[in-house]
User: Fold this.
Amino acid sequence: MIGELLWAVKTSLLGYVAAQADGTIEVTGGAERSDDRRFRFPLVPQPGEPTGTLMFRGGIRLHAHGGLMDVTLEDPWISTGAESTVSVLATTGGEDPERIVLARFALLPDGEHAWRGERVRLTSDGAFALGGLQYHEHQQVDDLAFSAPAGDAPDTTHLTEKSSR
Assistant:
């Protein structure tokens, strides 16, 4: 089994970019667009004991309005623990990439070696990266799903029945 992250980020944002005359959505670095319109990011295998962070590779670039909108989200990491997060290398407007926590989510088991993130909500850094004025901290974005082989699986022993409600 090879692990992957499946996530559309924010479906309405993707629709907005696609509707612009000069709007483009590019996938890079090993990411691909799945049949259900989510992005598929392959897992980067990690030697040693699981650390609670899964690293995936690839990126997406959203470009429109003659470059006024130019957002790149690359190499997502899923961190599990008391708080589950997804971080990315974010580049906006030609700035240098910076790793930010884009969103926080409720982590739930979803089968053997598979999990899903529900109630995925932007952080203030995530809201700024996606456009600032039209997004805000705690705004809900699309749910995500990820998988990892046993050797790379995150420690989710902290998950309880209470966390799935």
Observations:
- DSSP finds two helices and eleven strands in the chain.
- Residues 161-165 have pLDDT under 50 and may be disordered.
- The chain has one domain: 4-152.
